[in-house]
Specification:
With about 280 residues, the protein is an alpha/beta fold. It has helices at about 20-30, 40-50, 55-65, 70-80, 100-105, 105-120, 160-170, 215-225, 235-245, 255-260, 265-280, and strands spanning about 90-95, 130-135, 150, 155, 180. The protein has a 5-stranded mixed sheet with strand order 2-1-3-4-5, with helices on one face. The structure holds FE2/S2 (inorganic) cluster.
């Protein structure tokens, strides 16, 4: 193993690289003026990735200046969240979830495989600075426990042998395929689907006809809403609605229709006047 450390050094100054500038602009645009401080977490992630996996004081200060935030506020954020490292770490970070569901599913074996494969204990960096191993709280993928988070990817459904294979691939400089390592898709049952075997087609999607079975049942509300005899409805719905408004006197003696609309004609009247004007023209 190469014993020359490649860990990122502490620095007196920091600036985002040319390659990262467009991403910085994209992040800042998400937040309105006066709310730019909300960009602190995504900017810290970007800065940490640029600086080899950890955040020296100069990096924190640069982010604080960019966002016009008091420096202490940025230090608080960076030191609060576990995903930010305040000390030099190996560039490739392996985080083993050891919270209860992962522990019940064998996270002790995953930790042991990492320790034996890398020759370090939890919380340590390899002497060449390539790898950093630590335990982590729930990663939110408990359905695929046990879970190992490596850089930007989750590796799931692990056991001792699978983890050793992953570690050896990382040491060769490869990026193993993320996701479940036992062959299943997502968190689907190992034996395949147990429900939702068919993808339902839309009613009449192919030839305009209503299909049998479930599709016919889907059409029931549509059929029910149709008028019994479509030819019987000759007047426009607006005129029918207008006729349905009773021209009654209220208790106060006024015309309910006139008072409600302050002499505003109802829609049917407007349509009739439009027709008259058109006929006159
Ligand atoms: S307990 Fe490990 S992902 Fe939730």
């Amino acid at each position: 193993m190469n014993t020359v450390s490649v860990m990122a050094p502490d620095v007196a100054e920091f600036a985002f690289s040319e390659a990262n500038r467009p991403e910085v602009e994209r992040i800042l645009k998400r937040y309105p003026e006066g709310r730019k401080a909300s960009a602190v977490i995504p900017l810290l992630h970007l800065a940490q990735a640029q600086h080899g996996g950890w955040l020296p004081k100069a990096v924190l200060d640069h982010v604080a200046d960019m966002l016009s935030m008091p420096k202490i506020r940025v230090y608080e954020v960076a030191s609060f969240y576990d995903m930010f490292n305040m000390e030099p770490t190996g560039r490739c970070q392996l985080r083993v979830c050891t919270t209860t569901p992962c522990w019940l599913r064998g996270s002790d074996d995953v930790v042991r495989a990492c320790e034996e494969g890398l020759g370090i204990a939890v919380g340590e960096n390899t002497p060449d600075g390539r790898f950093f191993l630590r335990e982590f709280e729930c990663l939110g993928a408990c359905a695929n426990a046990p879970v190992l988070w490596i850089d930007d990817h989750f590796y799931e459904d692990l056991d001792y042998e699978g983890t050793r294979r992953l570690v050896e691939a990382l040491k060769r400089g490869e990026t193993p395929k993320p996701g479940p390592q036992n062959g299943r898709f997502g968190s689907m049952a190992l034996g395949g689907k147990t429900t939702l075997h068919d993808v339902p087609e839309r009613a009449g999607q192919d030839d305009g006809e209503v299909a049998e079975g479930d599709h016919a049942r889907d059409q029931a509300p549509v059929e029910k809403a149709k008028p019994a005899d479509p030819d019987a409805q000759t007047e426009s719905p607006a005129l029918v609605a207008n006729d349905a408004v009773p021209n009654v006197k209220g208790d106060h003696g006024g015309d309910a229709r006139t008072e409600a609309g302050a002499n505003r004609p109802l829609r049917g009247d407007e349509e009739a006047k439009t027709i008259e004007r058109r006929d006159e023209g």
